[in-house]
Please model this.
Amino acid sequence: MVYLGKTRQGALVEFVESVQPPIPRDKKWVLIVSTMDGCPVGCKMCDAGGYYKRRLSKEEILAQILYLIRSRYEDEVPVEKFKIQFARVGEPALNDEVLKVLDELPQIIDAPGLMPSISTVAPIGRNGWFERLIEIKEKHYRGKFQLQFSIHSTDEKQRDEIIPVKKWSFREISEYGEKFVTTEDRKITLNFALAKENIADARVIMNFFNPEKFLIKITPVNPTYRSIENGLNSDVTGEGLVLEHREFVDKLRESGYDVIISVGELEENKIGSNCGQYVQRHLNAQKKLEEAYTFVKEE
Model:
């Protein structure tokens, strides 16, 4: 379910709650919240780019989380794996308020299964933010924190085209990961929303990233207005098959990397809850996509 909510400060924000059939909610429940009103990054496959107003406050981010929790639970969230992803709209590493939310969440909600998740493009100039993230992870979430870097291409020039902001190099991401991941922690995810047009060379990954500290997640390029405008064709089928980049996957697995092919419920595309989708872009579009957002009804 995708929610549109207006905060007291006047921002119209999107946030999501999700279950993963056939797993019941008390076993796994995922919330996906926005950290900005719009996004300044403008990735080639993401409908949320294109306008940016401001960073959301700590209160505005918490309001999304607490609204969803209070709609289903009272004092305790009795969910075995309760995942909160800061990944709907906005680049979380550009907002200091995200760190405040992460630091205060364990005192605000009673959720033994809480597992925060940050997905970032690793913008430059935010070293202090990332160092503080390690401190908060060590304080509250050791072994229960998921960090993901959006990569999409192993070619630096193409990566800059897909993610058009200044960002860390592969070496900088690798060096940070060596500090972030301790013996108890989950591996850092390197995410490829893999289009047939993307360059994916296993040798680059092997050259920079330690398979003991990093895993690879490959996802489809979801049907968004931006991906279609930019001519991106998903290399991952709805059945989880990788087509053009099969050798990339095989070489990584042979070299000891965990490689996850992650394909969500196809119904999510119709809901507009998948990564890169943005319901407000759909509502404002004159020519509607036929393969996505079909469950969205404007009243």
Notes: Residues 225 and 252 are 31 Å apart (CA to CA). The longest helix spans residues 127-140. The mean pLDDT is 92. The radius of gyration is 18 Å.
